[in-house]
Amino acid sequence: MATLAEIRAKLKEQETRQGGQSTGGGDKAIYPHWNMAEGSEAVLRFLPDADKDATFFWKERLMIKLPFAGIKGQTDSRPVTVNVPCMEMYGETCPILSEVRGWFKDKSLEDQGRKYWKKKSYIFQGFVTENPLKDDETPENPIRRFIIGPQIFQIIKGALMDPEMEELPTDYVRGVDFRIKKTSKGGYADYSTSQWSRRERALSDQEKAAVDSFGLFSLNDFLPKKPTDVEVKVMTEMFEASVDGEAYDPDRFGQYFRAPGMSASTGDPNKGASAPAAAPVVEATPAPVAEPTPAVAEATAPASSDKPSSERAQDILAMIRSRNA
User: Fold this and answer.
1) Has residue 325 been placed in a domain?
2) CB contact at 8 A, 29 and 15
3) pLDDT digits (tens, 9 = 90+) for 191-214
4) pLDDT tens track for 82-111
5) Which domain holds residue 158?
6) For residues 57-66, b (16+ Cβ closer than 10 Å) or e, as one string?
7) The whole model's pTM is what?
């Protein structure tokens, strides 16, 4: 995992590449709704994916947490967790899940199985139209990214399956905002009362100008890159070491997946600089952490179409409902 400074530098680089200039701190591109106080509400307006071939206006991310007792060679190291991509995210068999699935047949291994099971999160983009976070500063590019957990995602998807929804909520003219409401349940953050706004709202002139000026993100650029065959083998070995209670071995794994706080030079100096950092998992609770992402391709304006917007919306909604039926 990259350090905080490395993450901020990478995000700043991405924002600079997209907007042609610094956006005042790339780390602010991800909106931390999980930092809201209990009883607060944030209003978001989701936007489409810049990828014209994308069916959905979000991307699903699947990650696996690998906990280690510490870091080998460091006598005072604390337990660390390295997060790796689940191969099912790329439509392939995941060797870790293939092993873990069998554990659920034995009740004594169920808790262990849940520890290594894939964690889902979803990446969206859009505007924050009402912000309860007093210390949050909107970057120069006001199009933010949102890391959404399964609880909120089910509410978002549920409305899309409603046949009474006639227009995509991301439509620039007839779209609707989404209200994230934070409460608590059993000592954990709860977002079950979040909901779509009832009224349609056209994008403001300022919002349309931001889309025209900065363009939209291609959300695929914020997913971890697909591991190579060698990296899949390394992930499997890391999984086995984690289950056996071993410490994380930087000499063995550092050039492929780095533990939190480790620099890019860990391991083989000829490979360390290009080695992918393990991305942290984002969950509904506790508070999620933004992942270090690959460089962002220059965003483009939404693809044009000869169809009226209402017909395009119906086509996409039909695909969404068909795929999720």
Assistant:
1) no
2) yes
3) 999 999 989 999 999 999 999 999
4) 999 999 999 999 999 999 999 999 999 999
5) 4-318
6) bbbebbbbbb
7) 0.70
